[in-house]
Amino acid sequence: MATHRLTTSQRRVQNLVRRHGTPIMAISRSALKAQVDRFRRHLPRVAPYYAIKANPHPEVLKVMVAAGAGFDVASIGEIQTALAAGAPPDRLIFANTIKPASSIAAAVTHGVDLMTFDSEQELDKIAENAPGCRVIVRIKVPNIGSIVELSLKFGIDPADAIPLLIKAHHLGLKPAGVSFHVGSQCTRIENFVEALEMAAIIVRDARLKQLPIEILDIGGGFPIQHFDDDPDWFEHMADPISREIDRLFDPSLQIIAEPGRFLAGPAATLILRVIGRAIRENKHWYYLDDGVYGSLSGQIFDHAKYEFKVLKGGRTQLSTLAGPTCDSLDIIARGEQLPPLEVGDVVYAENCGAYSSASATAFNGIQPAQVIMTA
Ligand SMILES: *Cc1c(COP(=O)(O)O)cnc(C)c1O
């Protein structure tokens, strides 16, 4: 067989397989830290509050705590995970706009006093269960072109923001700010620009009405590159967003964001192995040791696509990658161009850190890839 010169990333994958076997999800601490640094460098006025749902692994959270990030938490479970990782409660925002009454009360006992809402009913619930709490109204903004659309389920009409902030004040709550989410993996800069302009009008109006607005929360949605030849979207978007922020908001306003995918996504590589092969209808099928019920669940829930790579060279052929469970939904990719693979060969994908192991199951008794933390 022809020997094939491995690239640096291929050699790294090969070493990890020798050390740990497969299936593994290798998460790099330095890559996590580098994304936090990159976020801050390009958006100097914006404090990152890592959205835990993207990847709640305790070691990921510890890196974020050490980097001084805050956290976007959506449940009591996430609040406990963040606190256990060492996050100070005053760096948490309870950013699920619809919360069980009992969770609102429990959040207060954990020291969390900042939460979002997007309905009148939620305000009543917060006033009753977290008296005096700081609240942030979430407005509906354009989610055009974003891979995960959120504006259907969340956000009030911007015209209702001021009346609801006034109501919050009357209920004894502290109307503290405005938030939005442009949709996940948002590659359309206009979504951010329009949302910032909508928020600026509300902030100005609220201040004219003497409401104690102190925070603008620009949500998540910052995009990453899934494929090697994807453009570097963040690079193109961050500077214009930063300029809009400077233009629209005076320095007294505290600005935070809730990046999930952007911080966690690029840091992880999913490393799998071929456990079986077959030829079906003249096509090469390779069965791998994790699939869409496991660490590739983002293909279903997150509409994610990944670039699958191997450690071999050679003439490529049309190939199908399938997962290890007995369900026909568990097909990872059709129409991949891959060299011929044998049982035991490695298949890997980079940029798998977000919405992957977070939603993995052990369906069919098959455990998802083991998480390995690397330098
Ligand atoms: C999921 C979510 C985020 C993170 O979104 P990304 O696209 O991963 O950055 C941020 N805020 C809220 C409220 C969310 O639901």
What does this entry look like structurally?
This protein is α/β, with parallel strands linked by helices and 375 residues long. It folds into 2 domains: 126 residues, Lyase, Ornithine Decarboxylase, Chain A, domain 1; 237 residues, Alanine racemase (TIM Barrel). 31% of the residues lie in helices and 23% in strands. The protein has 11 helices and 16 strands. Strands 1, 10, 11, 12, 13, 14, 15 and 16 form an 8-stranded mixed sheet that branches. The chain has an 8-stranded parallel sheet with strand order 4-3-2-9-8-7-6-5. A hairpin with a 2-residue loop joins strand 10 and strand 11. Helix 2 crosses helix 3 and helix 8 packs parallel to helix 9. It starts with 7 loop residues before the first helix and ends with a strand. The mean pLDDT is 97. It binds pyridoxal-5'-phosphate. Pyridoxal-5'-phosphate binds next to helix 10.
